[in-house]
Amino acid sequence: MMTPTPEERTVEILPFKTQPALTSAAAALWILLPAFSVSAQTPPLAVEEIASGLSHPWSVEPLADGAYLVSERPGRLNLISADGTVREIAGLPEFYVGGQGGLLDLSLDPDFETNRTIYFTASISGKNGQGTAVFRAELDREALHLDSVAQIFSMNRFSGTTRHFGSRIAIDDTGHLFFGIGDRGEGVRAQNKDDHAGSILRIHADGSVPADNPFVGNTDALPALWSIGHRNPQGLTIDPRTGILYTVEHGARGGDEINTPEAGENYGWPEISYGTHYSGAEIGRGTHAEGLEQPLYYWDPSIAPGAIAVYRGEMFPEWDGDFLIAALKDQLLAHVARDADGTPTAETRLLEDEFGRLRDIKVAPDGALLIVTDEANGQLLRVYRPS
């Protein structure tokens, strides 16, 4: 298992220069980032603010015409134009908003340009408390309204805790929806195949279960499960070139992880971890146990990862195939370089302490990076290569 030493992960941030304001409202903020004292290759970067005044934005999806869809955890969905104009979209169902819950991830159907279908996750109320659900809807852009809203999945056990709902969505090239649900703050649930908590799940676009899911036909397991043993997977992505699924997951006190969830596997939480409980006590049986998968990469101490992307784009060719991770607690963007076999080799920390808690990251069609900041006055940012 490879993880960078504290010395390797330490980066020196030199003073940055704030550039004069640009004429477009979307370019109100433009920062040229300095070189970093690390081995990984860092290209020149600039940051522009597309929109601000967002309340704890959770997810961003770029649209073909240069606009963006952005979800806000308190329960708002926004259409943001390229010039930064924010317009709220009506028609959302009722959510539970509290703690870490509310309107969460957002994903476009692969045929969005023709069917206008989106998917989103949220915490909802039910028997015994709250839980995570997945919805499908059609976007009417002209009317700024969601039509044909349907709940296509709900976890099977609700509870009174207000944390660890998950829950990113990733859609593969055959239209299957992968999504994560956290352990809901009750770690033992992640080892229970009769419980959706602490797992990665896989369903069809209509909410039905694929016949080739790993636990279909197993009377001791729920058929929607793909893998188990996940603490709180708030980042989920599929490499568009290789089709490999990756998660980034919160540890406790240390032990944040990048995993490659495979069908039917167990990723260990809370039996193994590279972190400790917040009390300092050891978690489970240590870092290894037979039958439990090891992470591809981990952090100790934690950075509190909010999202992950595999970079595939033209703007930063030196990053091709590398991981980009948005971090909440450490308020940074982590660039994890990988070799030709996909093994992490070095980590560079970018934007550290400059924009607050970074919640989501996506690669835009032009190769720029899109980031939302999880703040009361949240921002939609674009990171690009200056000319």
List the helices and strands and how they pair.
Elements: H1 6-9, E1 17-18, E2 30-32, E3 46-54, E4 57-62, E5 68-72, E6 76-80, E7 86-89, E8 103-108, H2 112-115, E9 117-126, E10 129-140, E11 145-154, E12 169-171, E13 177-181, E14 199-203, E15 225-228, E16 233-238, E17 245-249, E18 256-259, E19 297-299, E20 305-310, E21 323-327, E22 332-338, E23 344-350, E24 358-363, E25 369-373, E26 378-384
Written account of the structure:
This protein is an all-beta fold and 387 residues long. Helices cover 2% and strands 39% of the residues. The chain is built from 2 helices and 26 strands. The strands form 6 sheets. It has a 6-stranded antiparallel sheet, with no helix packed on it. Strand 9 (117-126) and strand 10 (129-140) form a beta hairpin. The chain is globular and about 50 Å long.
Number of helices: 2
Rg, Cα atoms, Å? 20 Å
Proper CATH architecture of the largest domain: 6 Propeller
CA(first)-CA(last) distance: 39 Å
CATH class placement of the largest domain: Mainly Beta
> How are strands sequenced across the largest beta sheet?
1-2-3-26-25-24
Total number of domains: 2
Largest sheet: 6 strands, antiparallel
- CATH-assigned fold name of the largest domain: Neuraminidase
What's the overall average pLDDT, rounded?
91
Order of helices and strands: HEEEEEEEEHEEEEEEEEEEEEEEEEEE
